[in-house]
Amino acid sequence: MKIQIHLALIISCISLNYAEDIISEEFDGLENEIAENIWSKFDNEILKTITASKALYDPSKSGIRSILKKQIQADLNSFKDGITATMVESAVPYGTHYQLINHTLYRQNNCLFPSRCEGNEHFLLKLTDLPDFEIIVNHRDYPQVSKHFNAKIPVFSFSKTDDYADIMYPAWSFWCGGPAIKLYPTGIGRWDKLRKLLMKEAEHWPWEEKKNKGFFRGSRTNSERDELIYLSREMPDLIDAAYTKNQAWKSVKDTLDAEPAPEVSFQEHCHYKYLFNFRGVAASFRYKHLFLCKSLVFHVGDEWKEFFYDVLKPWVHYVPIKKDYTRKDIRDILMFFKKHDTLAREIAANGYNLIKDHLKLSNVKWYWKNLLEEYIKLQNLTPEFNPALMRVT
Ligand SMILES: *[C@@H]1O[C@H](CO)[C@@H](O)[C@H](O)[C@H]1NC(C)=O
C-alpha cells in the first residue's frame, strides 16, 4: 500500500513547508509511526515559534502607547510635507466634513449613517480644546484612498490594508453605530459596557469549563470563511462553525447550502475555548470582543487592520492563520492546542489581559486626541468657517 502524507505548515509566520514531504511506505505497520513523526515535527515547529515570539515580546519595552503612536506616524507619513486646503477639498467627496473652529465642532448637514456620526462625535466633542482643524471622516466600512492611485487625499477611515493611504481612527462602534444585527438591533456599541459584560461572562466560563472546540458564527461577507464551515461539517466535534443570515441573504446558497444558523451573542462565544476571527467587508468588529471571553483567538489573515491591531502580537496574544488556509491547517492547529492545553490557556490569558488593560475608552479618546494633534501640526491651512456646516452638540 502506498500512503501519502502531506503536511503543509500554513501558519503565516512560518516559512517551513512540509508539502514536499511525501512519504511512500510499503508496510502498513509503519504508517502510524510516520504520521507520528510528521506530527511531532509540526508540533515542534509550532512550539519553537511560540517560544521565540514570547522571547521577542517585551511589554515593558514596547509600551502600548508607543506602538499606537507609531501607527499614527505611519498613517500620517504620506502627509509629512503638509496638508493643504486643496488636499482637504479633494477629500470632501469621500466622507463627512467636520471643522473645529474656536472650540466649536461643525459638521455638514447630511450624514450617511447618523449613528456612526454620533459614535465619532462622542469623542470629537471631548476634544474641542484643540486648535482649529478641518477633517473628512469616511463612515463607510471600506477605505477610500488607494496608495496606487493618489496617496495625498486626507481621509479618515476606521480600517484599511497597506494598500490604502487612509488615516485610521477608532471605529464609531466604540460608542455606538453598529454594525446592527438582530441581537443588537441598534448596533453594537458602548464598548465600556460590553467589556464589563464579557469579562463577567468569562468568569462564569473559566477555561476548564469551556467546550473544548472551535467556534464561529457570522455571515458570508467573504468566501474566505467557507473552508472553516466545511471543516465543521466534516468534524463537528472539533469545530462548530456556521453561517448566519445577513441583509443580502436570498437563499441557502448564501449560507453554503445550509439553513442559516441563528445569531449568537458575544457572551455565548465565551462557552468555547477556540474562537475564529475573519475580516468581513473590512476589519471585523468582532475581533476585540473575542479576547474578553478569555478564549484563544485564531485570527485569519493579517491585511486588514484597525488602529490597535499592532499591539496584539501573533503567538503571544493570538494564533495567526494565513488567509488561504486549508481545512487541514485548521484541523492541525486545533489539534495542536488541544494537546497543549496549558499553552492555549496562556495565550488566551495574554490576549485577554492586553485588551482588558489597554483597549479602554480612555485609550480610544487618547488615540483620537493624539491623532488630531499630529494632524493639526501638519495642517498647512487656516480652517475657514464654512457657513454651510451645522453646529454639533
Ligand atoms: C473665531 O474667533 C475669532 C477671534 O475671536 C473671530 O474673529 C471669528 O469670527 C470666530 N469665528 C467663528 C466661526 O466663531
Write the layout of secondary structure elements.
Elements: H1 31-56, H2 64-76, H3 85-91, E1 96-101, E2 104-107, H4 114-124, E3 133-137, E4 156-157, E5 167-168, H5 191-204, E6 211-219, H6 226-234, E7 239-244, H7 266-269, E8 272-277, H8 286-291, E9 296-300, E10 319-321, H9 327-339, H10 341-358, H11 361-378, E11 390-391
Helix pairs in contact: 2-11, 6-9
The structure holds 2-acetamido-2-deoxy-beta-D-glucopyranose.
Describe the structure.
InterPro entries: CAP10, O-Glucosyltr/Glycosyltrsf_90. Residues 1-19 form the signal peptide. Pathway: Protein modification; protein glycosylation. The chain is an alpha/beta fold. Helix content is 35%, strand content 13%. It has eleven helices and eleven strands. The strands form three sheets. Strands 7-6-8-9-10 form a five-stranded parallel sheet. It has a four-stranded antiparallel sheet with strand order 3-1-2-11. It is globular, with a radius of gyration of 23 Å. 2-acetamido-2-deoxy-beta-D-glucopyranose is lined by residues 101-102, 385.
Quick take:
The protein has 393 residues and is an alpha/beta fold. Helix content is 35%, strand content 13%.
**Heteromolecules bound:** 2-acetamido-2-deoxy-beta-D-glucopyranose
Order of helical and strand elements: HHHEEHEEEHEHEHEHEEHHHE
The span between the termini is 76 Å
The number of helical elements comes to 11
Strand order of the largest sheet: 7-6-8-9-10
- Strand content bin: 5-15%
Task: Round the mean pLDDT to the nearest integer and report it.
Answer: 89
Q: Provide the structure class.
A: alpha/beta
Report the radius of gyration as a whole number of Å. 23 Å
**Strand tally, please?**
11
Helix content: 25-40%
Largest sheet: 5 strands, parallel
- Choose one word for the global shape: globular
Q: Which spans have pLDDT < 50 for at least 5 consecutive residues?
A: 1-27
